[in-house]
Design brief:
Oligomer: heterodimer
Largest interface: A-B, 25 and 30 residues
Order of helices and strands of chain B: EEEEEEEEEEE
Helix content of chain B: under 10%
Number of strands of chain A: 11
Low-confidence stretches of chain B: none
Number of strands of chain B: 11
Helix content of chain A: under 10%
Distance between the termini of chain B: 33 Å
Order of helices and strands of chain A: EEEEEEEEEEE
Number of helices of chain B: 0
Structural class of chain B: mainly beta
Mean pLDDT of chain A: 92
Radius of gyration of chain B: 13 Å
Radius of gyration of chain A: 13 Å
Largest sheet of chain A: 6 strands, mixed
Number of helices of chain A: 0
Structural class of chain A: mainly beta
Strand content of chain A: over 45%
Largest sheet of chain B: 7 strands, mixed
């Protein structure tokens, strides 16, 4: 069963706007990761945040983690058409496996 | 050259046929994974392996088997394919001590079972 659930399922914005996606999960985690998937292609790792971290940045990406609420958010600032993709959160419970959510489809229009 | 490769990239087969999907990696990673992706369902783990001779079932292993022939190769077999195994299949690799577990994905195999 999926551990993470992304919200919204789909998001449509204009270039230059910010995109925020949320992920909720059910059990305790060691870390949470975000991946991007361009249509029909393999997933690409974006960022990892450990359970003892609250916020992390990577370029235009900002990830927050609230373990008390069992939730995370991914913010993409100044979105570009090339950011159009599906975004997945994945949780790691301390073992060598990840549990993926169902994803958020982001459409960035020029 | 891609670090994680999958063959074939596309396959159409008939119900009851035996199918093998292959994954090779040049990253030197010890951990390898097989997932399937269905529209709207995200990725679900089928099998994973931490080393040669180490095989572990994932969430949805029924109807599938795997073989870890070498550190660099991990094959997924469908012994008797059925239509609900139509999906996009991904291989992934990982390395590193716990809890660091970033995974690197192959390009996927699109399988259609008629």
């Amino acid at each position: 069963s999926q551990q993470g659930e992304e919200d919204p399922q789909a998001l449509s914005i204009q270039e230059g706007e910010n995109a925020t996606m949320n992920c909720s999960y059910k059990t305790s985690i060691n870390n949470l990761q975000w991946y991007r998937q361009n249509s029909g292609r393999g997933l690409v790792h974006l960022i990892l945040i450990r359970s003892n971290e609250r916020e992390k940045h990577s370029g235009r990406l900002r990830v927050t983690l609230d373990t008390s609420k069992k939730s995370s958010s991914l913010l993409i600032t100044a979105s570009r058409a090339a950011d159009t993709a599906s975004y997945f959160c994945a949780t790691n419970g301390g073992y060598s496996t990840l549990t993926f959510g169902k994803g958020t489809m982001l459409l960035v229009s020029p | 050259d891609a670090d994680v490769t999958q063959t074939p990239r596309n396959r159409i087969t008939k119900t009851g046929k035996r199918i093998m999907l292959e994954c090779s990696q040049t990253k030197g990673h010890d951990r390898m994974y097989w997932y399937r992706q269905d529209p709207g369902l995200g990725l679900r783990l089928i099998y994973y392996s931490f080393d040669v001779k180490d095989i572990n079932k994932g969430e949805i292993s029924d109807g599938y088997s795997v073989s870890r022939q070498a550190q660099a190769k991990f094959s997924l077999s469908l012994e008797s394919a059925i239509p609900n195994q139509t999906a996009l299949y991904f291989c992934a690799t990982a390395w590193g001590a716990e809890p660091y577990n970033e995974q690197f994905f192959g390009p996927g195999t699109r399988l259609t079972v008629l």
